[in-house]
Amino acid sequence: MAVTAATTMSYQSVDAPVMTLTSDNFDGTVEIDLEAPRSVEGWGVYARAAALAITDALPPTPRGLRGHVAGRLPGSGLSSSASVTLAYLTAIADVNEVSLPPVAMAQMALSAERDFVGVKVGILDPAAIVGSKRDHLLWIDSRDIRFEPVALGEKAPPWQILVAYSGVRRNLLGTPYNDRVEECHGAARKLADWSGATDVRGLHDFSDEVYETFRYRLRDSEAKRARHFFSERARVRAGVERWREGDIEGFGELMNASCHSSIENWESGSPELIELQRTLERTAGVYGSRFSGAGFGGSVVALVEDADAVARVLPVEAFRVESDDGVRIL
After folding, report:
1. CA gap 168, 184 in Å, rounded
2. What pLDDT, in 10s, does the model give residues 79-137?
3. pLDDT tens digits for 184-226?
4. pTM of this prediction?
5. d(CA 58, CA 61)
6. pLDDT of residue 245
7. How far is 99 from 91, CA to CA, in rounded Å?
8. For residue 128, how far is the Cα from the chain centroid?
9. Which one, of 273, 286, 287, lies nearest residue 316 by Cα?
10. Mean pLDDT over all residues of the chain?
């Protein structure tokens, strides 16, 4: 789900096809030519990536903008890269009077990170930011790129969202994240060979039955990555049902199990992040917790009874956020 810890971008249209940006969180000014986005360094790489991803949707001579970016997401593991990329895409589309459906917007953000930044991310972050509805869970089909808000059951007990920041900042390009994705693809290729499947793009193309038939033949890291994927898919299905039933405690148990698999099978998590999640799991009033984002740094997100009470006993910065609607122009 989207939350109230957000990226905010203020902007105004300009006649020239140039995007000029400043930021509360980073020094300097970034300037991107929307007709010919040249390489830039530092925090401007996501602005350039957004400009490249949206190019085909723009008029021959696009309008530019002057903008300023603010927010408390950078480095915290709360989808900060997808959030700022979608802010850029939304602003560029708006000043050029281009209407983008939510799925198209999510796919552009995905392309920006994959094709022009070089991080092999999935659809989860951009889909959650464009498709979320306040107090709903967003169910995402990553194979067919579709998503649907799921209402919480009426019997749910009181719940709040707490974000606990480990203090470890990370850029995914500097982590083993891309290696993990390649190991998933390696496992998918082997399952395809053994099962005779064709037109396989990833592990999501296989049924649980195929995985169960051949999983014992997978070895080492590929076996762990596949185990994480298929067990996580099962937890997602179960989690949707728990949410619909209002079973917050059951949903929290699935969050914990998900994080255990992230540590054991996906092999992510800095020592600080792992200890933080274990601390939350032992803390009274916490339904469940797991890493937010790719899990190599950043934050742990927890579903709790009373966020302020839990934050007071943690040894790190922690803050309450609310469920929120997705990306929008205010």
Report:
1. 26
2. 678 999 999 999 999 999 999 999 999 999 999 999 999 888 889 999 999 999 999 99
3. 999 999 999 999 999 999 999 999 999 999 999 999 999 999 9
4. 0.87
5. 8
6. 97
7. 11
8. 7
9. 273
10. 92
End-to-end CA distance of the chain: 19
* The pair of three-digit structure tokens given for residue 15, joined into one six-digit string: 């006649």
Domain boundaries, the chain: 2-141, 177-267
What does the block give as tokens for 18? Answer: 């140039």
The pLDDT, as a whole number, for residue 171 is 57
Q: Measured between alpha carbons, how far is 285 from 273 in angstroms, rounded to an integer?
A: 20
Question: 120 to each of 109, 112, 150, 168, 322, how far by Cα in Å?
Answer: 12, 10, 27, 21, 29
The CATH code of domain 2-141 reads: 3.30.230.10
How far apart (Å, rounded) are the C-alpha atoms in residues 182 and 195? 20
CATH H-level superfamily of 177-267: GHMP kinase, C-terminal domain (3.30.70.890)
Residue 188: both structure tokens together? 């998918």
Q: How many CB atoms lie within 10 A of CB 119?
A: 18
Lowest mean pLDDT among 30-44, 159-173, 286-300, 302-316: 159-173
DSSP per-residue letters across 204-242: GGS-HHHHHHHGGG--HHHHHHHHHHHHHHHHHHHHHHH
**Per-residue tokens: 168:** 């470890």
Q: Which residues are catalytic?
A: 125
Burial class (CB in 10 A: 0-12, 13-18, 19+), 310: buried
Per DSSP (E only), the strands in the chain are: 2-3, 7-14, 18-23, 30-33, 64-71, 136-141, 146-151, 160-165, 286-291, 299-304, 318-321, 323-324
